[in-house]
Amino acid sequence: MSERTDQIGDRPAGLELQRREFYSYVSGVVLALILTLVPFGLVHFGHAPVTTVYWVIGCLAFVQMIVHFRFFLHIGFRQKREDLQLILFSAVLLIIMIGGTVWIMGSLAGRMMLPLQP
Amino acid sequence: MSQEVFHYPGLNLGKAHPRTHAIAQTTIFGFWVFLMSDAILFGLVFSSYVTSVHATAGAPGPKQLFDITSVFAETLLLLASSFTFGMASLSMKYSHSKRRLVGWLVLTLVLGAGFLGLETHDFLTMVAKGGAPEHSGFLSAFWDLVPLHGLHVTGGSIWLICLLGQIKRYGLDTRTKLDIMRLALFWHFLDIVWIAIFTVVYLAGLA
Prior knowledge:
With 118 residues, chain A is mainly α. Chain A has three helices and no strands. Chain A is flat.
């Protein structure tokens, strides 16, 4: 079962690719670290209005997810299979289901005059 | 870099591992479909959490129960473990010896165990502060969501231990390589779910 031919490859091109792939992980982790530090710092030290904080941390989380997909999971626009389409389709399903649930239950809470704030 | 064509999610093995690379095209896609359905599961649990976040019913709420320092440490541990798993994938692709691969995998396992240890400590602290699942709708939803992710990480860690045994017993054959590639996807995916958890549950709860 072992692949002895695996070890042979054209060296210079291989080294170039190896370097690029290594830096893909490094840039991924650096970007993710920044995108983690900013929202934590904002919540821990900041005094911004709550709604602003929600929007900022939400957007940063979205960007960080894209960073993880791009640099750790190696998803790009040039996929051979429908990997990216599958992510986008799942995202559409999630938006419909989460958005719909939150909308309807929020509206219900408002009409029933349930406590929206603890 | 934009000219690169990705054949499947995760690190593409390419010419250096022709046989594994060919099989991975279908196997990894199948696993990717599973991961996306798992994402839907998490999404629905998230929506039940968001709708019951204010239903504290007199029990302690997010501000009394969550500890931002601990969550921050957990986030860093999980991010670091994602990076070390990336290094493991790279050494599988390029290194000639198994030692480096096993080293990175063991480091990933240690970081994952550190994450689980801190998380368990958090959960126990929460229970001590009166945050057990039965006290409010909010707490039930919390205990449904966050430990579900922890359970996934536990499963991933057990899988990683099995993989280490597989590497020791069978060496780096095609099957082992495919298993490592799938666990890599699973591990990176769990880190993405954690981004949603620390943002929606912890940061939004403490904001």
